[in-house]
Write a structure and sequence with these properties.
The protein contains 2 helices and 8 strands. The chain has about 150 residues and is an alpha+beta fold. The longest helix has 20 residues, at about 10-30.
Length: about 150
């Protein structure tokens, strides 16, 4: 875009440039729907996990699951640490430490309350409605699930 600047109209031209560039900068600074992982996600077994900011990273907690609806007082009985076996499953932190790098969220940990095991994890939004969640014992021993956005 070219501006013809005459007789003190430099400020007006500059204001016009800022006005045009402002919305573009907002688009660059905000995450797109394709990379956004926060929100409620339905897991492959019918559970719901809430992913939200936790400091400089994101984390996720169990909101509901079919087993929890039937027995809401379930605790983390399979945890390898006996002192943590009395924690309730509803609200339990199962995703932590994920940092965004491009379209992928990595560097985090996934806790599986069914086995009491913790795995290195990554998350990759496939579009605004699905999220590929991968847990690895060690590469290449990984398993992925595709979760769908609940809300």
């Amino acid at each position: 875009m070219r501006f013809k600047i005459e007789n003190g109209s430099f400020i007006r031209a500059l204001r016009g440039s800022v006005w045009l560039a402002g919305p573009a900068l907002l688009l660059i600074a905000t995450p797109s729907a394709a990379t956004e992982v926060t929100g409620r996600w339905q897991t492959t077994d019918g559970g719901v996990v809430q992913i939200e900011p936790c400091g400089a990273s994101v984390c996720g907690r169990i909101v509901s699951a079919p087993e929890l609806d039937a027995h809401p007082d379930q605790t983390d009985v399979n945890n390898k640490n006996p002192t943590e076996r009395t924690r309730f499953l509803r609200g339990l932190l199962i995703l932590s430490g994920f940092h965004q790098s491009g379209d992928t969220w990595s560097g985090g940990w996934i806790y599986d309350p069914h086995t009491g095991s913790t795995y290195k994890g990554s998350m990759e939004p496939l579009d605004g409605k699905t999220l590929k969640v991968t847990g690895c014992v060690m590469s290449p021993l990984c398993q992925s699930q595709t979760w769908t956005r609940d809300r």
